[in-house]
Design goal:
With about 500 residues, this protein is an alpha/beta fold. Helix content is about 30%, strand content about 25%. The strands form five sheets. Strands 13, 14, 15, 16, 17, 18, 20 and 22 form an eight-stranded mixed sheet that branches. Strands 6-7-8-3-9-10 form a six-stranded mixed sheet, sandwiched between helices. It has a four-stranded antiparallel sheet with strand order 2-1-4-5, with helices on one face.
Length: about 500
Amino acid sequence: MLKVDNLSGGYGKEPIVKNISFSVEKGEVLGILGPNGSGKSTLLKIISGILPKLEGTVEIDGKDSAVYSQKQFARKVAVLPQLHAHAFSHSVKDTVALGRYPHQSGLFSSWSNEDERAVNEALAYTGVTRYSDTPIELLSGGEQQRVFVAQALAQEAPILLLDEPTNHLDIAHQQQLLDTIRKQKNEKGVTVVSVFHDINLASLYCDRLLLMENGRIATIGDPKDVIQETTIGTVYNARVKTQPHPELPKPQMTLLPDTKEEEKPFTVNKQQFTVSADHVSFKVDQPLKTISSAVTNPGMGWYRAFVNRHVDANYNADDVKAEMADYLGKRGYHLTDTVGMMTAVTTEHAEIGEYKGEFGSVLIMVTAGVGNAVDVSESLTRDREQRIGTINTWVIVNGHLPDEAFIQAMITATEAKTKALQTEDIKDPLTGTIATGTSTDSLLIAATQEGEHLPYAGPITPLGKLIGHGVYDSTVRAVQAYKKAKVWPS
């Protein structure tokens, strides 16, 4: 559809873009990325004919673009430049209608039903129909940008060249515009080549990415192959972290500041726990990086308050998350800063320990009841109604953990809990076999992200050894306290 071969060019005799070669297939979206001055916009202008090429070729449908007349080229390629100049006052609809120029013929061309349809469709696609009769100069920069995108769409060319199409747009209109472009690709097979400043948007909406550096191609390929921490960090000279998008198989990038805000050395200790018959809480001044299976704020995040709440064994609520949020709010907990769990065990019997190693220390909190014990290997045979969790485990680390260490810590803590149940001879009452947990256990791993870097948390690592010993020891003590108190009969 579009083929660029050994293309060089720019504004003068010294090329800005050097020896660029790539091709884009019909119905493909290619995003062009690169730092300021890397040649992104220059490349697009050379392809569109706005700037001259010094060498190389641009082919459209197998033909050199130079053989097309201006109108013929415009029927093949629609261009949205980065900056727009409108010397004359036009209404929005008239501005969009200029996109139909390549389809007009003769000195006195008549406006056709097809022209009207294309313009109205483009207005609707970009959400500017309500401005049809408004002079374009009265619109905001973002609204004007959407009008010029509509003009390009009204042209109905099979190839779209876009230079920062989301410029001046808020996030809602960025999404709407890029969704529109993807819809053009999916429904009409439009080929799109677009310059982006926003790497995350480019990753979400493009099939492939071309990363430029100093006028040349640094790399080209699938977003997951281009948006690599080392590649982006080197080309942009910035510290970045990549992670998967929560809903799509696309990478997303986060900037990492070169320096943190200056803060005093930060550690946590056992004295920061508060225990009552109603709940166990743990509060800190600085947020901890956390992963959990909690009711309130599950998953990964940064939080300052942690609550393990006692509820009756027969607790029932139509909306558990809303009820829990109400409980926390009434007690002064900031919902966006708090992790909240529930347990059917009386929380005043919580076991809390502090376990010290050469790198620092680990705090463990366990509430454990075993009346709802389950052998996970026999769970297929069970039809018992799910009940509120009874074994809730917190592991809080004075140290710096990468993401993989959080996952390893969860595995190590779970293995230690299971071993503790074996030691205490806790059995699944329905199968008579050794239990591995209860039906709705919860687990939390948190870290200060200060102090020593702890890359692993497996059972033979310094961190894993403390977690394994601490969770085992605390769980055994919690189960023994439960048995002694008989707070929830089996």
